[in-house]
Amino acid sequence: MKWRKFRLKTTVAAEDIISAMLQELGIEGVEIENQQPLSQMEKEQLFADILPAMHDGDGVSFLSFYVNEKVDEKKLLNEIRNELDSISTYIDTGECVVEESWTEDIDWINNWKEHFHSFYIDDILIAPSWEEVKEPDQDKLVIRIDPGTAFGTGMHETTQLCIRQLRKYVTDGMRVLDVGCGSGILGMLALKFGAAFSVGTDLDPCAIEVTHENMTRNEIADCQYQVMIGNIITDRKIREQVGYEMYDIVVANILADVLTVLTPIIKEQLKSGGIYITSGILEGKEQEVTRAIKASGLVVTEITRLGEWVSVTARKIQDF
To answer: Between helices 185-192 and 157-169, what is the axis angle to 10°?
Structure first.
């Protein structure tokens, strides 16, 4: 099968949010090219004694993605342009020029796995299935996550912010809901932190498949973690399936614009006194999210930051 390759020119500042948008539109994997200097974590991930030469960042980023010949490209490109217009209202997206080319059938989804190695988030070891856990790490909290088409290996700042907040608030026996579960990493870690049951929802069918695969890798049973596909914002049936006032913690690692719409709805899923953890919020957008949280009757308890990303944690006021 032939694939059409699209290469989108944008800015480093917008690359994360545009990548997330492309994934929400069903794009299965995005390659990012830029000249930004490597972070310390990225340097460690290379496992190399001599690092590649890097130029000073010029602020330009290229996002490449592939679409097979069965996809309605005209419709997809129109959707992408509409989303880019929306994103450009609050962040510099650059030229947004799209180049097109054809490529033969390649294993583009899996090729980047060779660059993904075990790494730590604090004392949690994130390890792909093909790497053996070394002897000094045997007593650590280990979670197996393989890179795939679903968001959430743990390397992104937004995921790390959620992981740290979950660890802070999860106690034994809790029920946790992850809206936009991606790879399932947050729901599975909640279980490892002591939660009794996790539920994950996502719009992408690939996320459900990847989550089930990662559950198997981590020996998590179906009775511990339920995943379902659907839009909890627009689909009442999904909200009913998820359940009302059943969750001690709801976590949502989604874009800020989605969080503002999600928050008044997700309040219904929280128990009285429950914790609401949000992330995926770019600096400059946190006030919109906090306003939505307060307008929904929740109380903001904590704001944490990592890089240019923000996590807002709130609590549903306890009934007496």
So the answer is: 30
* Nearest to 8, CA basis, from 73, 79, 81, 71: 81
Q: What's CA 192's distance to the chain center, in Å?
A: 19
Instruction: Note the pLDDT of residue 46.
Output: 34
Instruction: List the Cα angle 94/206/239 in 5-degree steps.
Output: 95
Domain for residue 114, yes or no?
A: no
> The tokens of 135 are what?
């002897």
Using an 8 Å Cβ cutoff, are 75 and 56 in contact?
Answer: no
Cα separations in angstroms, 143 against 36, 47, 187, 200 = 29, 20, 11, 17
250 and 179 housed in the same domain: yes
CB-CB neighbours of 35 under 10 Å: 13
**CATH for 55:** 3.30.70.120
The residue type of 246 is: M
Q: Give the pLDDT confidence score for residue 56 in this predicted structure.
A: 45
The pLDDT of residue 274 is: 97
The angle formed by the CA atoms of residues 150, 155 and 159, to the nearest 5 degrees, is: 70
Q: What is the mean pLDDT of each run of 10 residues along the chain (320 residues)?
A: 81 88 79 63 36 53 83 87 89 87 60 71 88 85 76 80 97 97 94 97 85 94 95 93 97 92 95 96 92 96 94 86
CATH number, domain of 267, equals 3.40.50.150
Q: What is the SS3 assignment for 161?
A: helix
Domain carrying residue 88: 3-109
- The letter for the amino acid at 311 is S
- Domain total of the chain: 2
Angle at the Cα of 146 from the Cα atoms of 139 and 142, rounded to 5 degrees? 10
Q: Which of 74, 262, 70 is nearest to 177 (CA)?
A: 262
- pLDDT given at position 179: 96
